Amino acid sequence: MQAQQTCRSPSFVTSGVLQLIEFPQSEISTWGGGVVFLNVLLTRLGVPIPAVPVLLFAGSAIASGTLSFWYVLPAAVLGALIGDGIWFIAGRRYGQRLINALSRLSMSAGTHVRTARSLFERFGAPIVSVSKFVPGLGIATPPLMGTTRVDPKIFLAWDLLGASVWATFWLLGGAVFEKQLSLFVLSVRAHGTTVIDLVLAASLLYFVYRCIQRWRFRRWLKRVRITQEQLEATLRTESPPIILDARPESALLDDTHRIPGAQRLDATSQADIEEALPERNRVVYCVCQDEATAMRITQQMRRKGFTRIRALKGGLDAWARRGYAFDPFPSRASAAALAARVKSLRAETEAVTLRGVAPKRGTSGGRR
């Protein structure tokens, strides 16, 4: 009974949390806001440390009266604005090179960039206000916004709104669930560990997982790679390959050319992919905007029955460096209509090209 009463005590929660993160309780009122600011800033800059647990514990300290809400909230918002502002300026200065570098970090980073771009095409700058609530999207959005024509004042206004709502949500969450946090404190302390230990362990496991995933994809890419010369040679045969151009529409704004005979493909639509893949023994190439899309379309091709999947890394950039031929869009009208839909974006990601051989009619798809 005494233990339960202790758990309900706000002072116990604050004391337990501070002991758990090895921060003296006597210093929390002085340095609490600084800790929140630094934590949020590092998180927004991309350092793999979570900001939510610190905000939750700060919320519990606010509920106990140790910290002031109007002291912690500006610290969290300022950290978010500085971090996002640095990414925005970097995107404005380095443009496509920065986006390409982010997309090459991992398949998930490329996916987040593509998602942010798609949402921006649909909703515009207001996506900045909600991006922090979506894992991965919060990091991809600021540099992507920097590559567009969005006015810095507009970006700052939406980012200020989003950061304020985001920080308030988690601070109030920590205050509301103060009792649950106290139980968590007891559980962790009973095992002789700290929150820092848990965060470091989780971050290490996630990093190892991402490295393994990246290594597996690189091994697959190395095993199935073909050269630009091989593709060019097949285009001059009596039975040229079918080429599917799966680059996003925004990537076609600055590049209105294609590999000869390429057909447009919406890589986000499974129906389009299924319809585009032929059922005769023909070679198919797919120009993709990043490795995540390449992997997804590869899986679609395998389910369709395609075998001997091959990848040609570099896409149109490598094709152009070899000096090979290009075809323009079928008509200026289609190019103009495409540009009108996504005026404010540029091509952001490196291309990956896939190649596969379809099974003959009536076959079961062969080896996978």
TrEMBL record:
Gene Ontology CC terms: plasma membrane
Positions of the Rhodanese domain: 237-328
Superkingdom, natural source: Bacteria
Short name of one Pfam family: Rhodanese
Membrane-related topology note: Multi-pass membrane protein
TM region(s), chain numbering: 45-63, 69-90, 155-177, 183-209
Protein name (Swiss-Prot/TrEMBL): Membrane protein DedA, SNARE-associated domain
Originating organism: Paraburkholderia phenazinium
Origin organism lineage: Bacteria, Pseudomonadati, Pseudomonadota, Betaproteobacteria, Burkholderiales
